[in-house]
Amino acid sequence: KRLFLFVLVAILLAALPLCASADEKGKRLVDKGDLLSESEENAVLARLDSLSEKYDYDIVVYTVESLDKKPARFYAAEAFHYGKYGMGEDGESGVILLVSISDREWYIEFFGERRLTEGTALSEYFVDQLSRGDYYGAFDSFASAVEDELEFPLGTLIIISLIVGFVIAFIATG
């Protein structure tokens, strides 16, 4: 009986760092890595909130000091679900950018029905800024990348390109 109780307590304590505190739930910027000044936090949070509401799609930035030897993908998913994020018709749509300082690792995870392009494509917008330590610029660029994708998704661009290609081919072959 004691062993069961010990194991249960150990599991709960291991999961504790993943659980968002009450004041973090739903907050689209969680800066546990302490990367931003208060004014930068306010500016990034306002942008994330504005874009999330405009597109009905949660856009979240979550920083941590360490992943505590957990896979970034797992940590990002746990942060998104414990943070109670998700919007859209399915109530689950959104994206999270996770940044771990000591691990020098970042990860993008998508949720719900409205999935955007791959995270590596979005990273082209902000990875240089992250490398230079310009976290405010990186998070602002991430928000811009998501906005661009929501405004004009890659799939739409491909369809338009195919239609234009067929029209040009039809005219050229006459």
The strand count comes to 4
Give the overall silhouette. Answer: elongated
Main beta-sheet annotation: 4 strands, mixed
Low-confidence stretches: 5-10, 12-23
Helix and strand composition category: alpha/beta
Instruction: Work out the helicity level.
Output: 40-55%
Mean pLDDT over all positions = 81
Strand content: 5-15%
If you compute it from the alpha carbons, what radius of gyration comes out, rounded to the nearest whole angstrom? 20 Å
Number of helices: 7
Return the string of H and E elements. Answer: HEHEHEEHHHH
Strand order of the largest sheet: 1-2-3-4
How far apart lie the N and C ends?
A: 83 Å
Any overview of this molecule?
The chain is of the alpha/beta class. The chain contains seven helices and four strands; from the N terminus they run αβαβαββαααα. The chain has helices spanning 2-15, 38-55, 72-82, 119-123, 127-132, 135-151, 154-173; strands at residues 29-31, 58-64, 94-100, 105-111. It has a four-stranded mixed β-sheet, with helices on both faces. Strand 3 (94-100) and strand 4 (105-111) form a beta hairpin. The longest helix is centred in the last third of the chain and has 20 residues, at 154-173. It is elongated and about 75 Å long. Residues 5-10 and 12-23 have low confidence and may be disordered.
